[in-house]
Amino acid sequence: MQEIRKQLVCFLEKNVSTFIESWRKKVFISETYLHKEREFNNGLKMYDLVVLRLENSLSEEDVRVLAYKVSIERAEANTNIEDFVHNVNAGRSEIINWVLSSGLPIEKFPNIIEEINTVFDQFTYFAIQKYTEIKEEQLQEKNQFIDQTHKERLKILGQMSSSFVHEFRNPLTSLLGFTKLINNEYPSLKYIDIIEHELHQLNSRVTQFLHVSKKELVSGEKKSNSLQGLFEELISFIYPSIVDGNVSLTNNIEFDIRVFANKDELRQVFLNILLNSIDALQKVKHKRIIDINCKTLDGKAEIIISNNGPIIPKEVSDAIFEPFYTTKDLGTGIGLYVCRNIIEKYNGEISCISDDSLTSFFIKIPI
Ligand SMILES: Nc1ncnc2c1ncn2[C@@H]1O[C@H](COP(=O)(O)OP(=O)(O)OP(=O)(O)O)[C@@H](O)[C@H]1O
Ligand SMILES: [Mg+2]
Question: By C-alpha distance, which of 55, 73, 76, 53 is closest to 63?
Answer without folding.
Answer: 53
